[in-house]
Each structure stands twice: as structure tokens, then as C-alpha cells.
Amino acid sequence: MAQYQQILKEHKIVQSMSRKGSCLDNCIMENFFGRMRNEMFYGHEYEFKSLDELKKAMEEYLAYYNTEQIQVR
């Protein structure tokens, strides 16, 4: 772990972690990744022939999610 933290420090990256026992810090990302899995992966697992195809599909999903989907607030 110390080596990992040293590499982060060398690249001026701030490590971000939830406080011990506080899952609420992470709930927004957990919600997003759960939604992404439900919408683009479950039921489609065998459509991706390679990791590159999966990566491309994820990039397309992110573009859709960030720019095109209808957002109700």
C-alpha cells in the first residue's frame, strides 16, 4: 500500500476514500454503476466479443448518460 501511495504522491494525485463505516460517501457512484450495469450489461453479457468492445460500449453509454438522456430533477 505504501508503494501505491508513493506513486500517487509522485503524480500529484490525491487519494480519495470513504471514512471507515460510511458507505454514504460512495452512494452516488454506487447508484450510477448499478444503473449502468442494469441498462447496458445485464442481458447483454455475451454480445461483447472482447474487452475492446466492452470498453467502446461503456464509452458510448457514458456519452449518452452525460449528454442525451432525459433528466428529471
Automatic annotation (TrEMBL):
Pfam families: rve_3. Gene3D superfamilies: Ribonuclease H-like superfamily/Ribonuclease H. One of its GO terms (molecular function) is nucleic acid binding. It comes from the Bacteria. GO terms for biological process: DNA integration. Residues 12-68 form the Integrase catalytic domain. InterPro entries: Integrase_cat-core, RNaseH-like_sf, RNaseH_sf, Transposase_IS3/IS150/IS904. This is Integrase core domain-containing protein. It comes from Grylomicrobium aquisgranensis.
